[in-house]
Amino acid sequence: MKQQVLQRNGTIISQALAGSGGATGMERSHSGVARKGAGVGSGDVELINLIKAFGTMRAVDDISLHIPGGEFFSLLGSSGCGKTTTLRMIAGFEQPSSGQILLDGVDMTGTPPHRRHVNTVFQNYALFPHLNVFDNVAFGLRRARIDPAQVRRRVGEALELVQLTAFEKRKPAQMSGGQQQRVALARALVLKPAVLLLDEPLGALDARLRKQLQVELKTLQQQVGITFIYVTHDQEEALTMSDRIAIMSNGHIEQVATPQEMYEAPATVFVADFLGVSNLMEATSLGLDARGHCRIKLGSFDLLAERGAAPGGNTKATIRPERVRLEPHGSAAGENRIPGMVERWVYLGNAVQLIVRLATGVTIQALMQNSGDEIPYAAGTPVQVHLPPAALRILTDTGVKLASEIAATE
Ligand SMILES: Nc1ncnc2c1ncn2[C@@H]1O[C@H](COP(=O)(O)OP(=O)(O)OP(=O)(O)O)[C@@H](O)[C@H]1O
Ligand SMILES: [Mg+2]
User: Are the CB atoms for 361 and 299 separated by under 8 Å?
Assistant: First the structure.
């Protein structure tokens, strides 16, 4: 059966690496890898009210998602939030407690993993140590009884794709972590999945190599055009590589957005706190003004926030440190300005982080690019803090407690 599936899928790697471009015929990309728009699978994934319970604990708690073919989609969240469980259900290694998984519109319930046109790349590579690179990549094809000439060609193409042609004869132990992970990638791609699932594939590598492979993986994904569902707890990785990101917490999805939307317009307190550094401040919403901006009170100060919903009453306001402006004490007063005092600053190399205590009593962070000039705000300097309305955002409070709040009550 498996062999039939593989053959039905086409006979060369480039056919299997089908994109979602919508083209009806074959088109050849600049990389020389042919892409096929329509065909066996365009890699469209849909999760509908997906639940996975282990005993009374819901590891995945009612997730609904649509990932169109060809998208680089990341599941981002802290340890234990249900990322791997979600991926394992898509792969077929784990059965959902309820809900549906559709691949190209077809319900996968009851379809075993090897019939799903889905392949997984794991963090620990899982290569066979006694086999050389070529044989590792060829393993799945040989097991499917693909004829040797075709195996030779497809493995050759896959190794070229991950730039390991010269390493065919090496054993995994003779290669670096990054090279081994590329072998694992080639081994997954050679089987022509419509969807590639990657579970923290760069997690075991050092920071420098991670960065390099992030770029390579993204390029590879664009070349082959198949759907990548990428699990990571590294926010920078998710922000730099993904077309869209889902941030997960406790088995559910907090927000699905493009990296830019997620960073600039976090919908919930959890997302604002999780992604990057945010200044989160208790605020009271006074409702909208004539221009549709939200009037808020921070302590005794009236401010305007252009962005986010205005639920009214107690809420949280947020602003990214790089959007906070410091002005010399005694500058002309104006809209959205609060007096403050620099408490300390931290040299970060490319920037300087300043901790400023506002007259409302709370401290906020401001980030100033390091322009080479002397930092004008030593500790103890009074300043005027400008929180531009366009950068100030009102958040929907999901009731999630922030780490700082939990620490304060313990
Ligand atoms: N087979 C299992 N039996 C019982 N509980 C499980 C099982 N697999 C996972 N869990 C639990 O489900 C929750 C989600 O686990 P999962 O592995 O999906 O998290 P994750 O987001 O991948 O975390 P990490 O970043 O640490 O890999 C965890 O609390 C975990 O302990
Ligand atoms: Mg995991």
Answer: yes
> Does ligand 1 lie within 6 Å of residue 251's CB atom?
no
Indicate whether residue 85 lines ligand 1 (CB < 6 A).
Answer: yes
Pocket lining: 328 vs ligand 1, CB cutoff 6 Å = no
Structure tokens at 221: 């994904």
Q: Is 233 in the pocket of ligand 1 (CB under 6 A)?
A: yes
Sheet hosting strand 325-328, strand order edge to edge: 325-328, 382-386, 337-347, 351-358, 363-369
Q: How far apart are CA 112 and CA 5, in angstroms?
A: 12
Q: Whose CA is nearest to atom 16 of ligand 1?
A: 82
Q: What is the pLDDT of residue 66?
A: 97
The whole-number pLDDT of residue 123 equals: 78
CA of 42 to the centre of ligand 2 (A): 26
How far, in Å, CA of 84 to CA of 104, rounded? 21
Q: Say how many C-beta atoms besides its own lie within 10 A of residue 79's C-beta.
A: 7
From CA 227, how far away is CA 164, in angstroms rounded? 23
**190, 139 Cβ separation under 8 angstroms:** no
Burial code (b: 16+ CB inside 10 Å, e: under 16) for 188-210 equals bbbbbbbbbbbbbbbbbbeeebb
Q: For the CA atoms of the chain, what is the radius of gyration?
A: 25
**Closest ligand 1 atom, residue 60 Cα:** 14
- Atom 10 of ligand 1 has which residue's CA nearest to it? 59
| pTM of the model as a whole | 0.80
CB of residue 79 inside a 6 A radius of ligand 1: yes
Q: How confident is the model at residue 312 (pLDDT cuts 50, 70, 90)?
A: confident
